[in-house]
Amino acid sequence: MTPIPPILTTTAELSSFLNDLAGDKALAVDLEADSMHHYQEKVCLLQVSGTQHSALIDPLAMTDLSPLAPVLSDPTVRKYFHAADYDIRCLHRDFGLEVRGLFDTMIACQFLGEEKVGLADVLQKYYGVTLDKKFQRADWTKRPLPEDMARYAAEDTRYLHELGEMLEKRLREAGRLEWVAEEFELLEAVRHSEHQGPLFTRVKGASRLKPRQLAVLELLLEFRDEEARRRDSPLFKVLGNAVMLEVAREQPTSLRALTGLSGMPARLADRYGRRLVELVRQAQELPQGSLPMFPRKERLVRDPEVDQRMAKLKQWRSARAEELGIDPGVLINNATMEEIARLNPGSVDHLAQAGILKRWQQRELGSSICDALRTER
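Request: output the structure for the sequence above.
Response:
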């Protein structure tokens, strides 16, 4: 059985551990958060592995993680992550930490055409390792940290060095190392952003509601947020979006009507029924002029010629992606292709000047994109 790395609970212990890593030119990093169990999501554990030393860092016990800043931001020290987007956002949001020298093994797998890119699938394929997934939804605020959870966390970085080195070698052989290097550079800059505007803009399906129904939904969402904060619970554990959308659509003004709604659990009706009905009535009393409208993006005018060029680009992408053994969406996404279709570049230089493509895409794909647009259907 794999030994559990030390769990660091003080800044002094963290500094000492980082001294042990001073000669390493690569680190494997992962984190665990508590989004499934608490209202305010936060990082609860950091896993860091060097070539010889590993540790679990407890940010709930120590208040100062600043010793990590220099090594994480040092571009000469490679940082192996798997699916780094969420981790990079959380590290910056919670601790102001920035990552440079990133190597994301999931992105590497995508650019090598791996069919399955989850860490468990990749480790199973290449190393015959089976990761126990039972703690993926665990409450990582538990202290003392149970031994089995600590062992699970340590496994996430145990193989990243070896995996990253193997993937880098394959990318270099395939001539795609510069492609992913640009992807890593862009990923290093992602940040967590606070939502602006009405809460209903975050709910899938709300765009189909009428103004009065939106007013109901907004009051329900505000109530859910207050209740989740009071209970220190994730929003979905208070009221699900599907239930609130149904209440907003039907606008029941009695408990009997509420409990008769499709998908309304009896326990929720018992617990929140009176309050939900009251909120519906409040929304119904709002004057017409104060009702919200769902913000609409300006629709682009449909252009048959653009549609034809888009069809050419999709055909080109399918053939090119098959040739490279990459998922078409990894090669170039639909939004980018639509921009190109509307631009209708007359030359590679014209396309480059528009700044639509990433550098590697412009270099590797720009010429063939222009050729595809010039061909007759």
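The longest strand covers residues 26-33.
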